[in-house]
Amino acid sequence: MKGPPVPPFGEAAAGRVARVPGSRLRRLFGFVCEAHPPPIYAVVCAGWAYSLLSMLLPPRAGAALGIEGAAVALAFFLILLFLRAVDEVKDLDYDRRHNPMRPLVRGAVSLGEVWGLAAAVAVVVLALSAWLSPRLAVFAALQMAYGIGLLLLERHSATFRRRILLNLCVTLPVSAALNVYAYLFLASRGLAPPLQQAVPVLLAHVAVFLHLEFGRKLKWPHLAAAGENGYALALGVPGASAACMLFGGAACALATWAHLSAGAGAASPLPWFALLPAAVGLQGFIVSRQEAVSLKPYFGGAMVLFFLINIAVARLV
Fold first, then answer.
1. What architecture (CATH level 2) is domain 194-317?
2. How far apart are CA 161 and CA 183, in angstroms?
3. pTM value > 0.70
């Protein structure tokens, strides 16, 4: 359970914290580096966007992976940064109890500064999306509005805060929408494949995200703090581990099917190799019952490897 909701918007409403000295830009830069590390998320977002575009594009239509493809990857990065800023506000009360070193909790930035960053990023996202396509700007606006709606829902619904599987079902669309963003970009250029061909690709990328989501939060219940939420607490360690690997297998199976359909031949099953880092991390987790193990590098690495393999296989067609 995450406890009572944080009061409505504003630093005074949430309780003042001692602010770290320094310029506002320096504090915001530090916040971004900590909460949304640019080198890591640049690799993730570039891989995510180019994996989608490579698999969705018709053969020999690589021109769309030029500067506009890079713009789609940048939009992914900025949308995730916006959602990260909103999440920092949304999770403030929970982080005060369980993650006291989060930047907003310890006063590295103020609530007003985080909201200001979110607003500035939103403006850039809308401008970039409008340059790509007016419809993309509308879609991005709806996606970011959904993120704000999640914050309001969590503040007013104890059930939503307490039930992690319900929380996942409601919050998943805001991340899964990135896949639709890439498809709409291609549609605006007349390059989008038919839906029956695109759906396996889109679902594969949703599944690999869920693989990461379940994997990075695996924790033995006896190591969880009082009141801490987690998939292992809701499903048990065997259930959460099985769900994690099930989503990973689904992502690879769907990607294999998509590559086979595109004519990649013997290279089509290569995405299965992306599960190796996750398998190593999961094995370490199982044998280390008495100490906490960070699985995010293993499952994050598996997701990036999945993207890179898809890009490589798609280029063989």
1. Up-down Bundle (1.20)
2. 32
3. yes
Sign of CA dihedral 50, 51, 53, 57: positive
pLDDT in tens, 296-314: 999 999 999 999 999 999 9
For the chain, what are the domain ranges?
Answer: 1-191, 194-317
What whole-number distance in Å separates Cα of residue 125 and Cα of residue 167? 26
The span from the CA of 41 to the CA of 178, in Å, is 14
What whole-number distance in Å separates Cα of residue 197 and Cα of residue 268? 15
CATH of 1-191, one of 3.20.20.370, 3.40.50.800, 1.20.120.1200, 1.10.357.140: 1.10.357.140
Structure tokens at 138: 């509308």
Mean pLDDT on 58-65: 67
Q: Closest Cα to residue 72, out of 178, 204, 225?
A: 178
Encoded tokens for 205: 């990328």
238 vs 227: CA distance, rounded Å: 21
The whole-angstrom distance between residue 73's C-alpha and the CA centroid of its chain comes to: 13
- Residue 227 backbone zone (phi > 0: left; psi -120 to 50: alpha; other: beta): left
Residue with tokens 């294999």: 256
Specify the amino acid at residue 234.
Answer: A
